[in-house]
Design brief:
The complex is a heterodimer of chains A (about 425) and B (about 120).
Chain A: H1 5-33, H2 36-57, H3 63-82, H4 87-108, H5 115-122, H6 129-141, H7 145-151, H8 156-173, H9 185-204, H10 212-231, H11 236-250, H12 275-289, H13 296-308, H14 310-313, H15 318-331, H16 335-347, H17 351-361, H18 371-383, H19 387-400, H20 404-415
Chain B: E1 2-9, H1 11-16, H2 19-39, E2 42-47, E3 55-60, E4 63-68, E5 77-85, H3 89-98, E6 106-111
Antiparallel strand pairs in B: 1-5, 1-6, 2-5, 3-4
Chain lengths: ~425, ~120
Amino acid sequence: MTATPKSRDARAAAETAARQSYGRLLAVLAARSRDVAAAEDALADAFAAALEQWPSKGVPEKPEAWLLTVARRRAIDRQRRRRAGSEAEDHLLLMGEESKAMELEENDGDVPDKRLALMFACAHPAINPEIRAPLILQTVLGFDAATIAAAFLVAPATMGQRLVRAKTRIRQTGIPFRLPERADLPERLDAVLEAIYAAFTEGWSDPAGTEALRRDLAGEAIWLGRLVASLMPDQPEALGLLALMLYAEARREARRTTDGDFVPLGEQDVLLWDNKLIDEAERLLAAAGGMGRPGRYQIEAALQSAHCARRHFGSTDWPAIAGLYAMLGRIAYSPVVEVNRAVALTEAGQAGTAIAILERLSADRRLADYQPYWAARGMVLARLDRNDSAREAYRRAIALERDPALRRFLQGRMDALPAALLN
Amino acid sequence: MQYLLMIYGDETEAAKIPPEQIKTMMPAYAHYTEAMKQAGVWLGGDRLRPTNASTTVRVRDDKPQVLDGPYADTKEQLAGYYKIEAPDLDAAIDWAKRCPGARNGTIEVRPIWEMQVA
């Protein structure tokens, strides 16, 4: 295709509109029919029409409203073709409603923002938790199944099937596109936040940033986090999650040396941290805290905040961190939280308490192949001068770790243990 | 949309409930049904006799096979159902939560497959 400057501009305008408007338009299109797949098809038609017409006719004054109108007409055309004769009668009613809605929107030209309702539908309790994050990425950001599959390390065909199934389920079971009732809101919002956080941690789990797709996923999750925080500014956990992700993102550059070696949080070079992001996170966390409704994400953000305080004070307040882990354990207990608390207690000079916690956890079979548990054991035992046991724990940790950088780091810790006394 | 709320419960447990307690449970269902009717969601519903009254029928190679007993041996059995009209799944779930049977049994919410008029 030969690209004249004008067609390039139109293409750029269409791409910008696509990036910014996709979820907004899809949410409006699917809201009434709950048919996400049909809305996706109609929207794809509309974007194709934009690419075809905007270069010659110019970009319309209100691109979103234009796309929405075209998509609605295409959706109606498709329906009409699918249904024949008397069946169409029923459908005329829906079409009438649709065109009334169209007129209303065309009058003020602003497309209402129903993306939050769309996210609540995607993270509905009737949807399999594992597909919620991919579904949100597809419907709100317009990612194709192959991209999402690559980011979540799943075969493209498998991911495609799961997404199709989830969309069919939304339509067939009648999952609503609206905000949940007040009584259900905290739990339902938690599911939305969890899905966003799942996308973030997927992206975060590629610390070297070598896989662009996965790295970008963390960025997209932050974008979604910003969206939810801006649409629900009175929900402290929404702000807490955004703060948590920003703190983590701020430390991205410091997580590895230029040689690709792992750097533990407590030893990271604070000059490599992104102060602007940390400041933004601090403001969000303060605003959330002021609402007096603590929750899991706020506490996890507070933990990050405590670590980041090192940029001002030069040292880490480990007793405070151990205290926050204890608080987190009371709200959302998990053995992982206990492992982290044990590490913080050890840094705070309470290795004896820490090893008691880890011993108590040793009965939990889920931890048998959880690398951080064994690394924590190694660290705590080393602090207690139980070097042989420490070595054994590090050996198990190394065997369980897939990331070579982390394996090198653990090996280094193990090698630094005083040699066993002979004789 | 139309949904079927299927009420599952453990029959052997239910059989142990003393008759006077059963008497107190009946008004709960009566109230629930009344609330559904007043809200305009009730389309139908019945209590079923226990599965020891069940008969299963199959036709294979044009030969009917009639057996005593339920289709599947499960821990909880279908004890009754409501057919309701609700705007969406959340509304149907809200009705399921209020069903007396949800307290000790399980309610399965299934959309009715609505046929297009030919």
